[in-house]
Amino acid sequence: MQTMKLTEAQEKSIGEIAYVRNGMYGNLDFSATLDYMNRRYVQPISKLLDISEASLADCAAGFGWLSFAFLLAGGKSAILIDADAPRIEAAAEIAQILGIHSRCIFKSCYLQDVELGTDSVDIFACIETLEHVGKENIYSCWNAITDAAKHIVVLTTPNKLFPVLAHDTRLPFAHWLPFLAIKPYAKLFNRDKSEMGNYFLGPWHLSVLRKKFVPMTPFQTFADISEFDRFYPHYLPYGDKPASRIRQRPSKLQRYFVYWTGKILGVNAHFTSPNLSTVWQRR
User: Fold this and answer.
1) Backbone angles phi, psi at 103, to 5 degrees
2) How many CB atoms lie within 10 A of CB 59?
3) Tens-digit pLDDT profile for the chain (283 aa)?
4) 215 and 279 in contact (C-beta within 8 Å)?
5) Which of 10, 127, 238, 245 gives a 20 to 30 Å CA spacing to 143?
6) Residues whose CB falls within 8 Å of the CB of residue 100, separated by 6 or more in sequence, listed in order
């Protein structure tokens, strides 16, 4: 069941923003996108923290959908951070349309350059971002996240241990090869244009988080399998093909995998998750 619904006028106004309209996500269902962010991330956070008194740092925020879902669900304030200045300007326009601009701060910078201050935000969300920062910036990014976050860290990033990843060529084991061997391997299958040189993290990289936080969710961002089940059906606001965004149910194999890894590994199930998806709480 959809939890967030914009007015027709709001949907139209957002779609008319040039940077939204001319990009690959100009055809998004904006209400369904907010609903996805709310049910996937905001609701699980709300079970650990009173969001009405909480601030969120969202990096990289993109157009701000996670931050806006958080605020529309009752969150107190949000800092939206993205290295793409025109995108963050578009996010500010969207915030005006949604009537929540006064509760937002907008920053254009890279994650490794974020300086918010120690324990300055209650929640730090880093969704599908760390794979793009480069090996040389990983620990600067971890320092930025763990220093700023007071209570909660929400994290997803492709898991290097998983044999096939969506953020590169999608070829089996490509990201396990030495860097100079990846392009030739991809070229054999005409996928070399999809190889972006991302640096993927493994579970061992998350040891930095454990100095201050503990993982809380055995079933991706959900505390129990029933929450995972209720997340379906949903609209997945990624990819350039609208028809592929509707997810009615997980495959039997996917649900079996999520269920048993959560049951066996508990809050460490993210070790085997394709995207290290976890909600972390302050020790």
Assistant:
1) -100, 10
2) 26
3) 567 899 999 999 999 999 999 998 889 999 999 999 999 999 999 999 999 999 999 999 999 999 999 999 999 999 999 999 999 999 999 999 999 999 999 999 999 999 999 999 999 999 999 999 999 999 999 999 999 999 999 999 999 999 998 878 889 999 899 888 888 998 999 988 888 888 999 999 999 999 999 999 999 999 999 999 999 999 999 877 788 899 999 999 999 999 999 999 999 999 999 999 999 999 9
4) yes
5) 238
6) 68, 71, 72
> Cβ contacts of residue 28 below 8 Å, gap of 6+?
237
Both structure tokens of 234: 């949903």
Residue whose token pair is 């990009």: 23
- Phi and psi at 247, nearest 5°, equal -115, 105
Q: Which residues pair with 241 in a beta bridge?
A: none
73's CB contacts (< 8 A; 6+ apart) are: 4, 38, 42, 43, 46, 51
Q: Which residue has the tokens 């190889």?
A: 195
**If you ran DSSP here, which 8-state letter would residue 40 be given?**
I
Which tokens is 71 given? Answer: 């605020």
Cα dist. 233→6, 208, 247, 250 in Å?
Answer: 19, 34, 6, 9
How deeply is 194 buried, as exposed, middle or buried, from its count of CB atoms within 10 A (0-12, 13-18, 19+)?
A: middle
Tokens found for residue 121 = 């935000």
A 10 A CB-CB count for 51 gives 21
- Closest-CA residue to 39 (of 79, 7, 78, 69): 69
Cα–Cα distances in Å, from 216 out to 44, 87, 275?
A: 10, 32, 16
- The label of the residue with tokens 């898991």 reads 159
